[in-house]
Amino acid sequence: MSDLEEKVKRKLMDIEDFHELAVRVDDTDLMNVVHANKYLNYFDDGFISFTSKLNKDCGALHKEGIVFPVRKIEVEYINSATFGDTILIHTRVESVGNTSMVLLMDCYKNTKSSDTLLVKGKIVRLILDMNKNKLLKVTEFFEDII
Amino acid sequence: MDELEEIELRLLNHQDLKKVKVRFNDTDAMGVVHFMNYMMYFDDGFVSFMNSLGGSEKVERMIHKHIALGVKHVDITYENSAKFGDYVIIKTNIERIGKKSMTFFHEITREANEDILAVVKATRFILNLKTNQLMDVLEFFQEFLK
């Protein structure tokens, strides 16, 4: 591995992002809690916020045909949230492979007095150039963060 | 063999197939089903599995009686993408029965060519919302199967 690749990997793993959002009423189910699948939307929001910190605009990239498909997820549900709560998503990179990266995404219920851990997520994402139907090398894609 | 052992064996040997049509709003701008929506599919598979054991609309009636079947842990591996117009088949069985939780295995395939789209392991628990207590899995099914 070249020095540059090593530096990009280290930098990616150093960056963390915090993104806040409000629970929408239609995120909740008849049990009056946020439905399990909605946290996957929150993970998307957290990822978009994280990449913007790396000077990558997911919306603009999408128009160019560059997308970030999910290969695998692992989610542990610890506590529940409901309408009126604010969710704080903490995102960081656990590891960087050749064409994939593993993100750790924890969701907290953010109140004025404390943060309660709601959900722990581990997500494997790829970077796909849809024009060429080719996976991109993670360290090359994020090279400009150095 | 006592009654609870018989119930456990019956549960572990049971399998259900549920067919779902991919709706237009299940897909995203990449033209494939958004990764979040596979959770809806295996929720459908779970309800179908339960009703195939307990009788038509048994789960729906049970939920309105304040028994919740919550999700504790989910692992999903995405193998292929479903597209608008596809029919997907959700195969469901129980992989493990613990005292207070059980792990479901779901395999989601495209009906047309039997491509595996996603493989899911979901650990669920049964919560009595009136007492806010977790229920014993086999004792729950003793009632549910009557």
Could you characterize the architecture of this molecule?
The complex is a heterodimer of chains A (146) and B (146). With 146 residues, chain A is of the alpha+beta class. Chain A has a single domain (3-145), classed as Hotdog Thioesterase (Thiol Ester Dehydrase, Chain A, Roll), CATH 3.10.129.10. Chain A has four helices and eight strands. Chain A has helices at residues 3-14, 38-53, 58-64, 138-141, and strands spanning 16-22, 66-67, 70-77, 86-96, 100-110, 115-126, 128-129, 134-135. In chain A, the strands form two sheets. A five-stranded antiparallel beta sheet of chain A has the order 1-4-5-6-3. In chain A, strand 5 and strand 6 form a beta hairpin. Chain B is α+β, with helices and mostly antiparallel strands and 146 residues long. Chain B has a single domain (3-144), classed as Roll (Thiol Ester Dehydrase, Chain A). Chain B is 29% helix and 38% strand. Chain B contains four helices and six strands; from the N terminus they run H-E-H-H-E-E-E-E-E-H. Chain B has helices spanning 3-13, 38-54, 58-64, 137-144; strands spanning 15-21, 67-78, 87-97, 101-110, 116-128, 133-134. Chain B is elongated. The A-B interface holds A 30-31, 36-38, 40-41, 44, 62, 67, 69-77, 130 and B 29-30, 35-37, 39-40, 43, 63, 68, 70-78, 129.
Distance between the termini of chain B: 18 Å
Shape of chain B: elongated
Structural class of chain B: alpha+beta
Radius of gyration of chain A: 16 Å
How far apart the termini of chain A lie comes to 16 Å
CATH C-level of chain A: Alpha Beta
